[in-house]
Structures are given as C-alpha cells and as structure tokens.
Write the structure tokens for this entry.
Amino acid sequence: MKFTTKAEYGLAALADIAIHSEQGEKATTIEIAQRQNISHKYLEQILLQLRQANLIRASKGQKGGYSLMQPASVIHISDVLNALDSSILADVPEIEENSGLRRNIKSCLWDKMNGAMRNYTDHMTLAELIEQGICPDDSGSYVI
Amino acid sequence: MKFTTKAEYGLAALADIAIHSEQGEKATTIEIAQRQNISHKYLEQILLQLRQANLIRASKGQKGGYSLMQPASVIHISDVLNALDSSILADVPEIEENSGLRRNIKSCLWDKMNGAMRNYTDHMTLAELIEQGICPDDSGSYVI
DNA sequence: ATTTATCCTACCTTGTCAATAGGAAAAGCG
DNA sequence: CGCTTTTCCTATTGACAAGGTAGGATAAAT
C-alpha cells in the first residue's frame, strides 16, 4: 500500500534524533538530512510538524537543534504517524445511508484493516523500532 | 487510512452480482449502479476491470449483463483488491542503499503493516463478506 | 433494423504529494 | 553591537493520480 515519504522521513529523523539524544547531543536539520539522505528543506517542515505535535523539542541559534521530548520508549509509532500523515490511521469516513451494500462492506473490511494498523502502531514504540533495526520477532502478539 | 472508491464500488458491485447470480439472474451495469448508488459510467470501467481479471463473466446485448465466474466462496478479497487498486496490497518499493535508518524502518514497519493487510484479505472470501454483512466475528484468527 | 447492452479510449477537473524558495526571528559568540 | 547559525513559517510549483464524464464501436436479442 501507499505510504508517504513524509511518514518515512519523519520516522527516520525521529530515530536519528533519539540516538543522538541518548548521548545528550542535539541534532540539527542539516545533520539529519545528510545522514538520512533527505532534502533538508523538506525535512525542516517535517521537524516543524513533529515539534508542534510535542514529540521533539527545538532550540534555535548556534548550538541549537532538536532533541526528544520524551524517551523513545514511550513514543508510540501511531503518535508519529498521526502527526505526519493525517489520513493513514484515520477512521474511514461515514457513508450516506441509501447506498446498498456499500455501507456494510466499508464498515466490515475497511474498519477492520484500519483497526489492524492502529492496533499495531499503538503498541509499538520508537525504542522498539530503533533497537531492533530489523523487525521485532514477536509475531503473533498483535491480532486483528 | 485511504481507500479508493474504485475498490469500494467494485466490491459492492461484486457482492451485488453474487447475490443475483445465486438466483441465476444477470445484473446489468445500470441496475447495479442504481442499487448501489454509483455513477453507471464509472461503474462500467470498474466492471470492465473485474471482467478482465476473470472475476465476472459478461454477456452483451438484450438480456445481457454480468454474473460471477466462480462461486463467491472461492473469490478472495485480495483478488478483487488487486484487480481494482494496484497499490493497496502492493509491496513497498525497494529503497536505495545509502539512506541511513530509512531502509530498516521501511522493511520493518511498512512491510509488516502491508503483510497484515494481505494476510487478512487473502483469507477472507466474498461469500463471507456478503453472508455476514456485518463484520465476521472471528476476531483473533488473523495474526500479524 | 432497432433496441439494449457491453466494450473501449480519451479527456478533464480537482486535490495531494514532494519538494523548492526565501525570508523572519531568536540564540550564541566575537 | 553585529555576525553567524540555527529554527520558524508561508507561499509556490510541478507532477501525478483519483474520480469521474463523454461518446462512439461492437455484439446480441427481438
């Protein structure tokens, strides 16, 4: 399915910041952009959104940069996705009444698939994502 | 998350056809469009795609219309989605090497969420979708 | 021959994604 | 103070896809 680069870049940036936060360092837009290979002007907007969602703290000027607001272990992936991509975890819009089978199908399939995503991203934290780098091997924990 | 109307309309149309197929009737574009409240010219294109994917059989002219190619119990939802919305169940595209954490994050989160969808829609059939109208109450059967 | 249906292709309008650009504001440093 | 470095914020743009609309060609039944 389709994922926005914004979500992808944002998660990578957050992970990057988290790693540097552990050492008490701040990360600047330029640094992150270079490490993660992202346009730094585009990344600027993404970091702005993450700050407005209270996921990161910014300081301006020399020696400025970004650090995490909370430890990575309490940041849920769904928080990040919600901040960056309003539609990816959003409820499917209600549908007018007189529409045959459509309403039922939507509330059956769509909501289920949606719920599966939400359940998964609600439980997974940024720390887990970073720690393993690869996929967590807890297959079977999350259930539709 | 975002689902295309094409997939929504297509599933509703297929369900509609399935119901009428059971009684040996064919359903025409116009009839389906009215029952499901869809633009019939748009639906035409959708039914064309479903036919090209061998999900339905069409007959032209008077007394023409559409019927299912196979019983609804062997049509998997993933077949329908694949026929109508090439991206919804598609693998996430590979990413260039030198890209920091992005590659790992993508292959972790993205692929998992994607796999969850696929697993779910691979197991569910059109018949189940119709039969229950509401959600199947087999929560817990499908696992990420 | 005429009606009724599918078949097929082209087109159009609107919105969103992914950037790019450029400047304002603040923080540190000499 | 003045300069640099950083974040902050808004506007704009190009490309592309979604969601239709339109119109004619083709085939089957009566």
Notes: Chain B touches chain A through 53 residues (CB under 8 Å). The CA atoms of residues 9 and 37 of chain B lie 9 Å apart. The first strand of chain B starts at residue 56 and ends at 59.
